[in-house]
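User: CNTN4 protein. Structure?
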Amino acid sequence: QTVPEELQNGGGFGYVVAFRPLGTVSWMQTVVASPDTARYVFRNESLPPFSPYEVKVGVYNNKGEGSFSPVTVVYSAEEEPTRAPTTVLARSLSASDVEVSWAPPWENQHKGRIQGYEVRCWQHDEKEENAKRIRTVGNQTSTKVSNLRGNALYHLAVRAYNTAGTGPSSAAVNVTTKKPRTAPLDSSEDNGQLCPFCLLFSPPWPQVLYRWSRQSSTSVIETNKTSVELSLPFDEDYIIEIKPFSDGGDGSSSEQIRIPKISNAYARGSGSSTSSACTLSALSTIMISLTARSSL
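Assistant: Predicted structure:
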């Protein structure tokens, strides 16, 4: 910072800039004669990139020299990273998110610092120059890429950057996002009949959840068929829900289907209807029919 005129204490005011490579003894000095000048450039073509120098700045006027500032360390300009990150890995977290991780490049750090990393992500049928770009800061070696399409193939590559620019790119790695969550289920009772129940759903295949109406615990059946048969004690009310599931997560449940208790006379395979006691061995067979509809 320049010295205000009221503090220069005389004419012929200027600055003395002293500097030396870090770790050496002798100072190099130069005079900056203008009191309004706030910078000095030392040019040396043989100076290695990102070389540390000790620097101090003093003042003078016609009466003599003043004191120097405290010594500080500055660096010559750095070069962009010259090597690519290694061990790049990517994994799908959901239908819209993937995680990518990497290891820092093996690089001689005297040419510059790595200030962060740039991750590029582009879909298989897109051009790489149109890739989504995400920048990390500091030593972070993983990040999440979001807002992607479900069940789609993506390519990802990583490169380091600093104030001089970005370095070379790593080899691209591939990852396929998970399938999107499935569409909600609709359920309806078939013409008012007790069973079967006909449910419409979008693939993939559903889970059938059922419980006694008086209990909170739920039983689950997973199936890849379009119907499932449940054998249940017939003297209890039941609540049944159906929902689709896939790698991308569970879809929304159908409306609850309430099945009232069924008398012995209508229970299939339950034994004599004149049985004096109802036991758990007396079962009602409920057929749940599922009809698939294709996703748009």
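The chain has three domains: 5-75, 86-177, 202-262+286-295. The first strand starts at residue 14 and ends at 21.
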